[in-house]
Specification:
The protein has 13 helices and twelve strands. By secondary structure, the chain is an alpha+beta fold.
Length: 386
């Protein structure tokens, strides 16, 4: 029986979120149909039912299906127990027993790099001819470990690597006091190779490579608040024009007029969001996307269509989307335009991660009926595939 204190709309939205999370991580080149199929297999649902949940077509999800989906997602995200390897013998000539060829995912779990399970996890077909382990390292921040006689090869990308994958790797390296480790490090568009004499030395080197990126370590998103006056000093920026041109729109609740304005922006740099209210104005539960700027190349056309009308936090890169959500919350709390300089490394579907540097202005305002809106415009300084 459905709990009476939970609104059916909340359950519908939660179930929609759960089936999308079940399809993660996004796979290269796949369609929405493939993602729904994977989600259905993971949750134990039929494809048709999972598709209806995906698009929010089931108004009142049964409690047992919601509870089952929650449990499966939580179990997948639960902390992994430490990896326990056999003790390394100190006898002359003895070699530690190691996994032959594995990949550590974002939760620190280990997958056979040539296993059917790993292939299915990435949504690859049986005839796929690309290097799946390299794809996972470059695009998902996973770590590949390959053992051969006398040494271990570790392949990772410092700008992308996931914290729990690193934890599992460090557990492994501490068991290799004397075995040489060859590091394959992704820097820009190339792989660089260096050899370390032991597992402990390799662990120290990896930690240094990750930390030396910048003062923020592995943090993928950074926003530095700037005074509004910086817009007037930058004569080439489109943001000051946007600040002036949106003033007339701030006197109404006409979202369609705001969208028309954004669509007419020749720089394609304007996004619009409105508050998602729970039953009555002023009880915000999210920020719904009315229009999404194209200046930042974060979404393909299909992803763009899917997120319009949806909560901001439903973006392909959930961490980046949640981080942007917090920025919107800061702007709303400030009650005035907020200017920030942003550096972000964002995961994309069907494309390499995008490294972007841009300035953004967030303009919050309240419509005549009390509805909250936020204009967001960006001035892109640089963006390139990582």
């Amino acid at each position: 029986m459905r709990r009476p204190d939970i609104d059916s709309g909340q359950l519908r939205d939660e179930m929609r979120e759960l089936v999308r999370r079940a399809a993660e991580p996004a796979r290269a080149g796949e369609s929405v149909k493939a993602a729904i199929s994977r989600s259905a297999r993971f949750l134990g649902l039929t494809y048709g039912r999972c598709k209806r949940y995906w698009y929010g077509e089931i108004e009142v999800p049964p409690a047992h299906e919601v509870d089952s989906a929650r449990s499966r997602i939580e179990a997948r995200s639960a902390p992994k127990p430490p990896i326990v390897l056999p003790a390394v013998s100190t006898d002359a000539g003895a070699r530690p027993r190691l996994p032959i060829h594995v990949v550590y995912d974002e939760n620190g779990r280990v997958w056979g790099a040539r296993s059917y399970e790993f292939r299915d996890l990435l949504g690859a077909t049986a005839t796929a001819d690309f290097d799946m382990a390299e794809f996972a390292v470059r695009n998902l921040g996973w770590i590949e470990v390959r053992h051969e006689i006398g040494r271990v090869h570790v392949r990772f990308a410092p700008r992308m690597v996931q914290a729990k994958a690193l934890d599992s790797l460090y557990d492994l390296l501490t068991c290799l006091p004397t075995l040489a480790v060859v590091l394959h490090v992704r820097r820009g568009q190339v792989w660089e190779k260096e050899q370390r004499p032991s597992g402990l030395d390799a662990a120290e080197r990896i930690a240094a490579l990750v930390a030396e990126l910048d003062a923020f370590g592995t943090q993928r998103f950074v926003a530095l608040r700037q005074p509004l006056s910086v817009l007037f000093r930058d004569k080439q920026s489109n943001l000051i024009d946007m600040l002036y041109k949106t003033r007339d729109l701030q006197q109404s609740d006409d979202l369609s007029a705001m969208i028309r304005y954004a669509e007419s922006d020749p720089t394609n740099s304007t996004s619009i969001a409105q508050s998602i209210d729970a039953g009555r104005v002023g009880t915000r539960t999210g920020w719904g996307i009315g229009h999404l700027a194209r200046a930042l190349r974060l979404y393909n056309d299909e992803d763009r269509r899917n997120i319009i009308g949806s909560d901001l936090r439903n973006g392909v890169d959930r961490e980046y989307a949640s981080w942007c959500y917090l920025g919107y919350e800061r702007a709303e709390a400030a009650g005035e335009p907020v200017v920030e300089d942003v550096r972000a490394l964002v995961l994309r579907r069907n494309a390499p991660p995008l490294e972007s540097t841009y300035r953004r202005i967030l303009i919050p305002f309240k419509g005549l009926g009390g509805k909250l809106f936020i204009f967001c415009a960006v001035d892109v300084k640089q963006q390139q595939a990582a």
